[in-house]
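Write out the bound-state structure for fe (ii) ion.
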Amino acid sequence: MFMPVLVYSENEAVINNSKKIAQRGHNALIVTGRSSASRNGSLNDVVHALEKERISYSVYNKIEENPTVQNVMEAVGFGQEKNSDFVIGIGGGSALDAAKAVSFMLAHPGEKEDLLYTHCDDSALPLVLIPTTCGTGSEVTGVSVLTVSQLHTKKSISHKIFADLALIDGKYLKDIPIHILRNTALDALTHLTESYINSNTDVFSRMFADAGLDLWRKNMDCLVTGKPDDVQMSEMMNASALGGMAIAQNGTGIPHGLSYSLTYKLNIPHGKAVGYFTAGYLSEASEKDRNHILEKLGFDGVGEFSDWYKELYGITEVEDSILEQAVDELWKNQPKVKTAPFEVSYDKLMKIAFYNKNN
Ligand SMILES: [Fe+2]
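---
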C-alpha cells in the first residue's frame, strides 16, 4: 500500500493549514484554469493563506480543459521566469494534472518537453493540490494525463508525481454546474468500482473502495437536484479522494480503457463516457463482485443500474463503428484488458461495449 500524500479534509482546509502550505517553499507558482478557481473562492483562499504566511506567489491561470503538453510548457516557462520554488494546483483534474507535470519540469531545468514521456527520476518541486470538483481524485494519485497533440490522444506522463499536501474542502462545490457535478461524481464512482473489480485488488485498495462506495451512495441523491448541502459537498469530495486512493493502488480498468474513444471522437465528458461502460463491466464480473457493488449502491441488478445511468445522464447515441474502434484499440492494450479479474475474450469485450445498446 502506498499513499504518500498528507491529506487534510475539513471546512476551511486552506486557511486552517496555511502554515503547512508555507512549509513547502518561499515562492509559489499557482497553476489553475481561467475562471473557476476565482468563481468558487478557492484562489482567493490560497492567496489569503499565502499572504498570511508572507509567502510570495505568481498565478498562471491559463490551464485549458484536457491540457496539452504545450500548455504545460508555457506554465513551466512562466514559473522559471518567476523563480518559483513550489507549485500549488487548484481546480478539477485538468488543472491538478497540469500542476503535477509543471512541478516535475520545474525540477528539471534546461530539459525539453520530451522528458515528460521519458523514463528518468520522478523528482518534482514540492506540490500542493486543492480539488474543486469531486471526480478525478487527482489530488491523491500520482497520475498526470495530458493531451499529446501529435498523437491526437491523451496520455499519462511517464512519471508518478504525488502531491506533498492535499487540501480538500467541500465548499468549493457550492455553485458547481449540475452537469459537471454529475459527470465528475460518476468518474469517482467508476474509480471505486474499477479498483474493486480488478485483478490487482487487495485488502487495502478494497478498504478505500468500500469506504468510498458507502459515502457515494449516502450522497448520490444530490446528483438529481444538483444542489448538494454542506454535508453532501464534503462527503462527495471525500468519496472522490477515496476513489483516487483506491486507483492509486491498482489503476483503472476496462471501462476507462473503452471510454477514451468516446471522449476523443464524440466529446463526451470523461465521467459520462466511462460510466457508459460500467453496466456492461458489472454484467461480466463475477456474481460475488457484481452483487457487492450493486448492494453497496442500492441497485437491484445491473438493469436497474443501467436504467439509472440512462435516465440521469441521457441516452447517448454512439455509432456501432465507434464502439468497435474502442474495442479494437483496447484489445491492442492487453495489460489494460488484463486488469479485469476474469477471462476477457475479444467477444466479451464487445459484449461489455455494446451492453447499453443491447439492453
Ligand atoms: Fe477517471
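---
Residues 176-358 form a domain with the Dehydroquinate synthase-like, alpha domain fold (CATH 1.20.1090.10).
The longest helix spans residues 230-250.
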